[in-house]
Every structure is written in structure tokens, then in C-alpha cells.
Amino acid sequence: MNAVTVRVPAKVNLQLGVGPLRDDGYHDLVNVFHAVSLFDEVTVVPGELSVAVEGASIEGVPATPDNLAGRAARLLAEHLGVEPEVAITIRKEIPVAGGMAGGSADAAAALLACDALWEANLPFATLMELAGTLGSDVPFALLGGTALGLGRGEKLTPLPCSGEFHWVFALADGGLSTPAVYAECDRIRAAHSERVSWPHESPALLAALAEGDAEALGAALANDLQPAALTLRPSLQRTLTAGRDFGALGSLVSGSGPTCAFLAADATHALDLAVALGGVGVARTLVRASGPVPGATLL
Ligand code: C5P
């Protein structure tokens, strides 16, 4: 085989319940992932191990084999007992360090693409296991759709989801570091002597997904990392408030931020919302997307 391309979606967290800090430095999560139609494309061809990155906003993405996509290729090669001889090109549309799992998506895409390039045809379960060792969000990028993630977020169960949900994403200038946002969440909790209770999935949110009820979903969106993201980036409060003022059914910081997500009633409402938000200068760029969409897919 000469070249393989995989398309892979971004995610938004519909519920991100963060439990206590574990001994291994991670937090146990109740994480409802939702894959949306913002995609990166990863192309692999035979060659010396290398990573190239293309796209409008790619600042900070390493164009070296240390890129998570390069690490994915090395991990798979090691598992198969072959040399990681692959040149990887990433075409980025997913915001960098934006809380939409762009790096994880590229790793998932590289795994699937190299599996095809090297004609390994590993079982999906094996790819999911390898994905889990690369990062907490990598397995979901392979799976796609809407899913509940427990543990670090890597123990996934697909969730029933009816219809299509329409989103507007407000992309910010610069990223936020995921470890820094988790650390800030721990700091805020300690400062308030908060007893961190075990997170539970929200029955209202699961019912809204199953019924395709956008209004109920908007009311149930929740992210325990949001206060930490707002402390580190106070300007996001204005962005969230503007979305609510312009009639979003729900709004929240996506994952560890700084991207903000707004749920619209339908595609027309999403367009209106994006235009209104664009007029008040609360974001670098506004993009519309819908979900759920499939996970990493061979083109
Ligand atoms: O797994 P991944 O490398 O994507 O996680 C990045 C960082 O996010 C971790 O090093 C940790 O600081 C934080 N994290 C966490 N608990 C999780 C997932 C991630 O504290 N469940």
C-alpha cells in the first residue's frame, strides 16, 4: 500500500464530572464524550519516521516524531515487531490545545492509518487498548459517536443518541494546558476545603441524548473543569455570557478549554448564533459543527 488517509473528529464533553486526584496523578472521571464534525486528516506513506503539520492555526504543534501521532506509529510498530517507517502528514482543522482532543484525534488516526498501511488488520479492541496507553481521550477518537468514559476517560460505553445536535464553537487565541487546568481545579477545591464527591452520570443528560431533546440537553450540560478554566482565562466568562444572551440552549467550556461550546436548536439557529457571537468580538473564530459523527475513518 502506498498512502492511507484517515479522517478523525474533534470531541466536546457534554458532562465532565471530575473525581478526586488519584495516586497516579490522574482523576477518575464521568466523561460524556460527543464527536462533532470538525475533522483532522492524517495521511501516512512509507518512509523515514517524520511528522509534518499543515493548516491555518498550527502554532505549538510539534512537527517531529515526538508528536502524539508519531508516538502512536512507534507504539503500533513496537506491538507488531516492525520498524516505524512512516512519513505522517497531519492536516489540522481541530483547534490546537483547545479542549477538543485534537492531539488525541491525530494519535487515533495515526494508529488506524498505520494499521492499514502495514496491513496488520488488528482487532478493534487491540487498537482501543493501544490507544488508551497513548492518552485518556485517544480511545474515544477511534470510537466516535456519543459515549460514557469512566476511569481516566478511557473505559468507554457507547450511549444511545437520537437525531443530530447543532453546535457553535468559539475558538480562543492560544491554548490552555490540560494538566494546568486539572491542577487549578484541585487548587480551587483545596482552597474551599471542598470534599470531592464521586461524580455520577446525569440521568437528565442521558435522557435528553436518548430522546434527541436539544433543549433538555442544553440545560444538562456540565463541566467540573469550567471554574478552573475561567480562573486561568477570565475572558471566557464574557464569551459564555454572550452565548447565553444570544439564546444558546446551553453553553460550557469544552473539556479543559479554552474553546467554548454553544448548543443551538437547529442548523439555522446555529448560523444565527455564530453571526451574533461574531459581531461582539468574544472569540478569535466561530465554527459550526454537528454531532454525533463516527470516530476515526479510513478514506
Ligand atoms: O491522558 P492525557 O495525557 O491526555 O492527560 C493529560 C493530563 O490531563 C494528565 O497528565 C493529567 O494531568 C490530566 N488528566 C487528569 N485526569 C484524567 C485525564 C487527564 O488529571 N482523567
TrEMBL record:
<keyword id="KW-0414">Isoprene biosynthesis</keyword>
<keyword id="KW-0808">Transferase</keyword>
<feature type="domain" description="GHMP kinase N-terminal">
    <location>
        <begin position="67"/>
        <end position="145"/>
    </location>
</feature>
<dbReference type="InterPro" id="IPR004424">
    <property type="entry name" value="IspE"/>
</dbReference>
<dbReference type="InterPro" id="IPR014721">
    <property type="entry name" value="Ribsml_uS5_D2-typ_fold_subgr"/>
</dbReference>
<dbReference type="Pfam" id="PF08544">
    <property type="entry name" value="GHMP_kinases_C"/>
</dbReference>
<keyword id="KW-0418">Kinase</keyword>
<protein>
    <recommendedName>
        <fullName>4-diphosphocytidyl-2-C-methyl-D-erythritol kinase</fullName>
        <ecNumber>2.7.1.148</ecNumber>
    </recommendedName>
</protein>
<comment type="pathway">
    <text>Isoprenoid biosynthesis; isopentenyl diphosphate biosynthesis via DXP pathway; isopentenyl diphosphate from 1-deoxy-D-xylulose 5-phosphate: step 3/6.</text>
</comment>
<feature type="active site">
    <location>
        <position position="11"/>
    </location>
</feature>
<dbReference type="InterPro" id="IPR020568">
    <property type="entry name" value="Ribosomal_Su5_D2-typ_SF"/>
</dbReference>
<keyword id="KW-0547">Nucleotide-binding</keyword>
<dbReference type="InterPro" id="IPR036554">
    <property type="entry name" value="GHMP_kinase_C_sf"/>
</dbReference>
<comment type="similarity">
    <text>Belongs to the GHMP kinase family. IspE subfamily.</text>
</comment>
<dbReference type="GO" id="GO:0016301">
    <property type="term" value="F:kinase activity"/>
</dbReference>
<feature type="domain" description="GHMP kinase C-terminal">
    <location>
        <begin position="205"/>
        <end position="277"/>
    </location>
</feature>
<dbReference type="InterPro" id="IPR006204">
    <property type="entry name" value="GHMP_kinase_N_dom"/>
</dbReference>
<keyword id="KW-0067">ATP-binding</keyword>
<comment type="function">
    <text>Catalyzes the phosphorylation of the position 2 hydroxy group of 4-diphosphocytidyl-2C-methyl-D-erythritol.</text>
</comment>
<feature type="binding site">
    <location>
        <begin position="95"/>
        <end position="105"/>
    </location>
    <ligand>
        <name>ATP</name>
    </ligand>
</feature>
<feature type="active site">
    <location>
        <position position="137"/>
    </location>
</feature>
<dbReference type="InterPro" id="IPR013750">
    <property type="entry name" value="GHMP_kinase_C_dom"/>
</dbReference>
<dbReference type="Pfam" id="PF00288">
    <property type="entry name" value="GHMP_kinases_N"/>
</dbReference>
